[in-house]
Amino acid sequence: MYNEFLRFIYNKKRYGFDSFSDGLYLVIFLCGTLLILKGNPEVNLFLYLLFFAFTNMIVLANEELEYEIRTDQIKYLELSSQGVFQVYAKRAVIYFTYSALLFLLCAAFISPVSIPVQLGSLWVALFCGILFFALYQLVILLTIRYQRISVVVDFFYTILLFYSGMVFPLKHGFSFGQFLVQTFLS
Asked: What's the burial of 101, exposed, middle or buried (CB within 10 Å: 0-12/13-18/19+)?
């Protein structure tokens, strides 16, 4: 795990301008979204934190795996004693932590934003963690199989953003996120 963390930091330093641009894009996106959602009592920012961190974890893994496939580094992962899925399971923790820290820094920058956490939220977090980790593994599998699926991943990210019900409440219609919130937080 420590080696994967060092690899992550080394890659961020090695591709400094790309890392800066990507981080700036995420900060602008998060600060803008948090400013819009700041006064809305219907939005649970803890669920938005989970949603952002999990989906950004998937996007980061997909980008990195596609890069490793293009540069032919994937063969070293396949021949290693751990294998691709075990290595990317370790990287999932690093990607999630990076995304969550970015979110929390942006929330601190917006200052009066509070992130309420209830006991039921922890059950939702556990269930969503399992669900998104399965989706993460599916994206890894599809990336290995088809090699270029970034556009599809970003498309599904957008669909999840607007129609999950966990981020923006849907007044009409059923959503899986609303079911979770009503079950565990009511």
From this structure: exposed
The pair of structure tokens assigned to 26 is 């995420």
50 vs 166: CA distance, rounded Å: 9
Please state the domain extents for the chain: 2-185
Beta-carbon-side half-sphere exposure of residue 127 (alpha carbons within 13 Å):
14
Residues 51-98: pLDDT tens digits?
A: 889 889 988 888 888 888 888 888 887 777 788 888 888 889 999 999
- CA pair distance 105, 71, nearest whole angstrom: 33
Q: Which amino acid is at 167?
A: V
**DSSP one-letter string for 87-101:** HHHHHHHHHHHHHHH
Can you spell out the DSSP letters for 123-163? Answer: HHHHHHHHHHHHHHHHHHHHHHHHS--HHHHHHHHHHHHHH
Q: How many CA atoms lie within 13 A of 92 on its CB side?
A: 20
**Gap between the Cα atoms of 98 and 92, Å rounded:** 10
Per the structure block, which two tokens stand in for 130? 């399992």
* pTM of structure: 0.78
